[in-house]
């Protein structure tokens, strides 16, 4: 049994199938990548898995339990965390507070204690601050902890979202283009970070355009085109798959690529 | 400095400063109104500034608090206890009504809350047997002077009311600051900035909104009880639309993202009309002009704008 199982998941917008009956599974301790051209339905697939959209068809299972239709905050309780392609940070908070918010499910103080500023509430906040600082350290943003999040660069915000997801203590992590807006050095750092996260036993599902990164760190790759899964396999299988090349380059480009190969 | 201590010291300092400089009972009376408004507007800051929800119906909750202390003593409940009953009733009503209407946002929510306020106003106007109808009702005498006399402090009633409202406002401000820096506060502010991200982190967005709505309703009700007791008289107009608008205006003018905005907004919009009475005819023009000019020049409200300015000056000072 895989930690995350997706079965025939689908959704239509105005008659167009943005995600069409997609199935795959993702194992703990591995990086499973979703690739495909722009508009293929990758982000929509994440929105279905994480409960942002309600699926028209199909099922999502976590550790064998059917969680289809559960709202995002319940899925978070089950250990799912994610980042967003079109950043969803908290711009009015500092970088540190952004990450501390990720500790929400660990915090056990009640509303009354929070209002009265009781020791139980202050203790929770101190604990969250410690966790958030080490997460910021881990993504290389510790020196920016006190800055308003709105002052961070795009690449930094991408990593801020990773830190915020990490402090939840997730067992399933969905990353939507985490290296977008990063330079070569930063991309390499994100790459190492994702590797390390997976090595800790987290089930990582990655959407990424940087093919070198995908080929380097994925155990398993799922290819989407126009909402459908067109291929699936190990990196070396995907690299040589005709349908994948065609989807990326168009039929004409594929023919050229074949000719170049021959 | 610890934000709780800072809030406590700043608010207390303002209460004491007022008491030291006020030359007459009239000033103490206006001062009480400022602190009563600070209480209800602090509730608006929790709702609007922390979570980002607009309510145009909070005068309804205010009136629930006001009528609780007006009606319940007739049934043998002491005024002090009636205040707590009113606050609890407002909080419960907010939780029950909040579930369905807080699914709305923006101006849809504004209109729904407006309707809620109107309903409460209507009940207070129609149920004359209980509320005295449109003429309102007398609120049984309650004088905090006696409380202060118990601990050996002698003062006039207006002064006693000033100190009582000032102390309750201080508590209200401190609680709101505690909340803002707590786990719940971070969850509320997360909903303000991105409800999608908040829910992905496990925040139950619907619940967070209801909680903030109920807290702000309790603040409004407590303020309402204090006003009714201080005035000794109450009419359904306390539940009126203009009063709801006034609360939101005070919060936005002062700066809805911070409790200090609640204090400054209440201070200016309570004191200014009093100051302007000597230009009677032009009062509304000046008041309107001040509001328009402030919002154009300082969109986020006075306190955040002045905070930014101070920050910029400090940065410039350092770079020289
Ligand atoms: N909420 C929505 N309403 C309508 N169309 C949508 C919505 N979300 C996604 N789509 C459509 O679904 C398709 C897939 O988009 P997306 O998942 O963002 O692609 P990708 O992430 O692979 O680039 C696009 O055609 C997009 O316009
Ligand atoms: Mg996308």
TrEMBL record, chain A:
One of its GO terms (biological process) is D-alanine transmembrane transport. InterPro entries: AAA+_ATPase (IPR003593), ABC_AA/LPS_Transport (IPR051120), ABC_transporter-like_ATP-bd (IPR003439), ABC_transporter-like_CS (IPR017871), BCA_ABC_TP_C (IPR032823), P-loop_NTPase (IPR027417). Belongs to the ABC transporter superfamily. PROSITE patterns: ABC_TRANSPORTER_1, ABC_TRANSPORTER_2. The lineage of its organism: Bacteria, Pseudomonadati, Pseudomonadota, Alphaproteobacteria, Hyphomicrobiales. Keywords: ATP-binding, Nucleotide-binding, Transport. GO terms for cellular component: plasma membrane. It holds the Pfam family BCA_ABC_TP_C. Residues 4-251 form the ABC transporter domain. It comes from Breoghania corrubedonensis. This is Amino acid/amide ABC transporter ATP-binding protein 1 (HAAT family). One of its GO terms (molecular function) is ATP hydrolysis activity.
TrEMBL record, chain B:
This is Amino acid/amide ABC transporter membrane protein 2 (HAAT family). The keyword Nuclease does not apply. Its main location: membrane. InterPro entries: ABC_transp_permease, LivM-like. One of its GO terms (cellular component) is plasma membrane. It comes from the Bacteria. The keyword Membrane applies. The chain crosses the membrane at residues 7-28, 34-52, 81-98, 105-124, 160-179, 210-230, 250-272, 284-302. It is found in: Cell membrane.
């Amino acid at each position: 049994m895989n930690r995350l199982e997706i079965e025939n998941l689908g959704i239509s917008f105005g008659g167009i199938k943005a995600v069409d009956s997609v199935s795959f599974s993702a194992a703990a301790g591995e990086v499973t990548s979703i690739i495909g051209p722009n508009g293929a339905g990758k982000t929509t697939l994440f929105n279905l898995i994480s409960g942002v959209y309600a699926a028209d068809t199909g099922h999502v299972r976590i550790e064998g339990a059917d969680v289809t239709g559960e709202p995002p905050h319940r899925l978070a309780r089950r250990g799912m965390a994610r980042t967003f392609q079109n950043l969803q940070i908290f711009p009015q908070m500092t970088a540190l507070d952004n990450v501390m918010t990720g500790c929400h499910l660990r915090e056990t103080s009640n509303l009354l204690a929070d209002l009265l500023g009781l020791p139980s509430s202050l203790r929770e906040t101190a604990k969250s601050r410690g966790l958030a600082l080490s997460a910021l350290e881990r993504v290389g943003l510790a020196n920016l902890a006190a800055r308003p999040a709105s002052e961070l660069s795009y690449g930094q915000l991408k990593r801020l979202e990773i830190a915020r997801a990490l402090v939840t203590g997730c067992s399933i992590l969905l990353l939507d283009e985490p290296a977008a807006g990063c330079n070569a050095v930063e991309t390499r750092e994100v790459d190492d970070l994702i590797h390390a996260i997976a090595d800790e036993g987290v089930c990582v599902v990655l959407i990424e355009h940087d093919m070198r990164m995908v080929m380097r760190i994925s155990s398993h790759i799922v290819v989407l085109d126009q909402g459908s899964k067109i291929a699936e396999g190990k990196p070396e299988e995907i690299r040589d798959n005709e349908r994948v090349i065609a989807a990326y380059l168009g039929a004409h480009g594929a023919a050229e690529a074949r000719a170049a190969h021959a | 400095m610890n934000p709780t201590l800072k809030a406590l010291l700043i608010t207390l300092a303002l209460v004491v400063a007022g008491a030291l400089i006020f030359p007459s009972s009239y000033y103490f009376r206006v001062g009480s109104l400022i602190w009563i408004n600070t209480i209800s507007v602090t509730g608006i800051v929790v709702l609007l500034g922390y979570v980002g929800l607009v309510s145009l119906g909070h005068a309804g909750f205010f009136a629930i608090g006001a009528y609780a202390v007006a009606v319940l003593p007739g049934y043998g409940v002491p005024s002090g206890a009636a205040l707590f009953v009113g606050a609890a009733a407002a909080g419960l009503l907010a939780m029950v009504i909040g579930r369905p209407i807080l699914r709305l946002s923006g101006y849809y929510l504004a209109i729904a809350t407006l309707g809620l306020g109107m309903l409460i106003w209507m009940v207070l106007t129609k149920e004359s047997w209980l509320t005295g109808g449109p003429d309102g009702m007398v609120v049984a005498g309650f004088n905090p002077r006696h409380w202060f006399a118990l601990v050996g402090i002698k003062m006039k009633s207006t002064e006693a009311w000033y100190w009582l409202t000032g102390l309750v406002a201080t508590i209200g401000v401190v609680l709101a600051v505690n909340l803002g820096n707590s786990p719940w506060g971070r969850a509320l502010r997360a909903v303000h900035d991105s409800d999608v991200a908040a829910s992905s982190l496990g925040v139950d967005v619907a619940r967070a909104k209801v909680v903030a709505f109920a807290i702000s309703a309790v603040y409004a009700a407590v303020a309402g009880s204090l006003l009714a007791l201080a005035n000794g008289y109450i009419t359904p107009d306390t539940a009126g639309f203009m009063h709801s608008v006034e609360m939101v205006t005070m919060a936005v003018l002062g700066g809805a993202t911070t409790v200090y905005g609640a204090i400054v907004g209440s201070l200016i919009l309570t004191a200014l009309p009093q100051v302007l009475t000597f230009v009677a005819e032009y009062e509304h023009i000046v008041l309107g002009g001040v509001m328009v000019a402030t919002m154009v020049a300082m969109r986020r409200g006075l306190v955040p704008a002045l905070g930014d300015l101070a920050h910029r000056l400090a940065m410039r000072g350092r770079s020289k």
